[in-house]
Each structure stands twice: as C-alpha cells, then as structure tokens.
Amino acid sequence: MPAKVPVPTYRVVLMLIEHQKRYLLIQEAKPHLGNPWYLPAGGVEPGEDLKTAAQRETLEEAGIQILPKYFLEIEHTLPLDLSAENPNPEIWRFFIVAEFIGGSLKKQPDAESLQAQWFSPEEIPKLHLRTPRVLEVLQKYRSGCPLYPIELYQSQVARE
C-alpha cells in the first residue's frame, strides 16, 4: 500500500461588496498580468477565521471596512496529480457577500494593490479583469441566487 502524501491546503476569501448599486474592485499590483482588476481577495492566515480574513484582506487591498454577511459560493479545487514529488494544493475559495461599513478607498499603491474603485455593472465588462470569473460571480449575485448566512460558518479554537 503506497504511503499517504500530505496535501497542502489553502483557503482563500473573495469579497463581493455592493454600495449604492456599484461594486468594489481592486486593481492588483501584478504588472506581469497587466495590473488587472479583481475582487478583493486573499489567503486566510493560519489560525484566522473566514470573517476576520475577509475584513483584513478588504482593509489591506481597498482601505475600507466591511461586515461579511453571506456566502455566495464555495469552490473546492482538488489536486489532479498528487505525489510526494508534486504536492499540488487543495484550494477552498469562499465567495463572501459583504456590507460596506465605512472608510475611504485606498489611493496609495502598495504591494497588495494599486487602487480600489466602485464600478457600475455596465462598467465592469469594459475593464481589464484578472479573469472572467469576476463577471460570472457578479451575474450570479445579480440574478438573485440563494445566499447563505455567514452564521452557518462556525469557527472554534481546538482544545487539547
């Protein structure tokens, strides 16, 4: 029987934030990709819960405070080829609908992002987007798809 191979697992939060019928996008500091526009997103740090990660990433990338409200979608990517020589990661992506609470949009570029802006649904398809997935998620949300309360997610500290 072959030995089990540990699978690296990554958790990523992606936020869909609507305010006054406009949606928040950040311009990523990724010149090799042409500095595309994308949803505020980022990795969940070890020991961090999803809601805290969503708030931290949005503040870092966009400069605003949010309240995570709903799950729009949870995407789970399994590794295709798993071996000790090729430990491809397992990735969990949590698409979170959040409410704008306050703050001012980021204007100073840094390693996280170049800027953040609110866009109407009509403006977004004209942007250089990181992936068409941005439009798919926006369309799904605007179609009135089911949203799942963030309270369904429970985190706790492991006890010895």
Your description of this structure?
The protein has helices at residues 50-62, 133-142; strands at residues 9-19, 22-28, 37-38, 41-43, 64-77, 90-103, 113-119, 148-149. The protein is mainly β. Strands 1, 2, 3, 4, 5, 6, 7 and 8 form an eight-stranded mixed sheet that branches. The longest helix is centred in the middle third of the chain and has 13 residues, at 50-62. It is globular and about 55 Å long. The mean pLDDT is 92.
Question: How is the quaternary structure best described?
Answer: single chain
Termini separation (Å)? 32 Å
Please provide the count of β strands: 8
**In sequence order, what are the helices and strands, one letter per element?**
EEEEHEEEHE
Percentage of residues assigned to helices:
10-25%
Overall pLDDT, averaged?
92
| Proportion in β-strands | 35-45%
| Computed Rg | 17 Å
Which blocks of ≥5 consecutive residues have pLDDT under 50?
none
The major pleated sheet works out as: 8 strands, mixed
Global outline: globular
Alpha plus pi helix count: 2
Class based on secondary structure composition and strand pairing: mainly beta
